[in-house]
Amino acid sequence: MTTTEIETTAGTATTAEQVLDAARGVADRLALDALERDRANAEPSAEAELLRGAGLPGVLLPREVGGGGLPWSVGLDVVREIARADGSIAQLLAYHYVNAHNLVWVADEAGRRRWGVPSAARQWLWGDSVNPVDPDLQLVRDGDGYLLRGTKSFSTGASVGDVTVVGGVADDTGKDLLVVVPRDAPGFVKGGDWDNLGQRLSASGSVRFDDVRITPDAVLGSASESGAFGSLVTPAIQAAFGHFYLGVTRGALETAAEYTRTTSRPWLLSDVREAVEDPYVLATYGRLVARLRAAEALGRSAGESLSQAHERGPDLTWAERGEVAEEIAALKVVSSDLAVEATSAIYEVTGARATSNRYGFDRFWRNVRTHTLHDPVQYKAREVGHHFLTGAHPGFTLYT
Fold this sequence. Notes:
Layout: H1 16-31, H2 34-40, H3 45-53, H4 72-85, H5 87-100, H6 102-105, H7 109-122, E1 126-129, E2 137-142, E3 145-152, E4 163-170, E5 176-182, E6 188-190, E7 207-214, E8 219-221, H8 227-230, H9 233-262, H10 279-312, H11 318-345, H12 362-371, H13 377-390
Parallel strand pairs: 1-4, 2-4
Antiparallel strand pairs: 2-3, 3-7, 4-5, 5-8, 6-7
Helix pairs in contact: 1-4, 4-5, 4-9, 4-10, 5-9, 9-10, 9-11, 9-12, 10-11, 11-12, 11-13
Subcellular location: Cytoplasm
Protein name: Dibenzothiophene monooxygenase
Main location: cytoplasm
């Protein structure tokens, strides 16, 4: 896909229905050459423009800054629709929604307007350089601002985003701070070294900050000091993961089903004329689709719960937050397990010839296998079990 090939799907979408129509249009466009782009392993610059042109980046931003002001449940539906066609671009958009929403969770009114107004007006994409398992970046006091120093091994969207949210520790106060770094800031170096098994177009390579100047108005605040409301950053990203996995799973099953209908041959011992009449093929699809429907229902419920918690704003309690987090943890467990299994099982219902590289069905498995390792799903299962047995909620971290 080149920039000149991009067609805007839906101008500026303002309602949930319009946004979902736009997302489906983008997904249909991405599906046309998903395999070719996956193999090219290039920076997703044109794909980012496709998202901007469809008006998708601004749909969750508050109306007060010109955004769509739509609930989180709609954003999660958008992520799921995009993932149906291209897991990498779904990840790019999912991370953007969470990163940009720090304007609501963490920033004050001045910071919200300073960064939110241009973000909504120009459909900015926000990158992410907050990964807490990397050594913390340092914010060294320099006059009334800071100098940002250090590296991050993974920084989804930083190379194609308009701005990137960066998490660092202030050397003068010891506080963890979120700061905004524009894409062209001097000293902001993108590694261009993302070359992993899957999610090849997620722009998740390393970045380095060589004394990047951080002015006072580029400091959003501290997530750890923003109360239960600010801590929704973690349930939100985990919910986005769950919907991303559901979208990839549905895309894999839909792609496999078309192959089964048109290309698969019935097994010689099946005594049927077509693969779609084979009872084992039918049962395999049936079990996977039934589980997907159940997982999608849980996804919708979790999305509504997240939206309702977000509507509570600063009045959200830690107990209320904990209940939402546990429902989303359950979604993470179910969607992760199903995605990994289903994207492998599609070969059982398509046949040996479907392993040909020209079909590229492996991209679905590669994408979910890569991303489900983001944080160990067993820890989410432990959280759900602990809550079920004792009612306990895990403490807030950028993973819980």
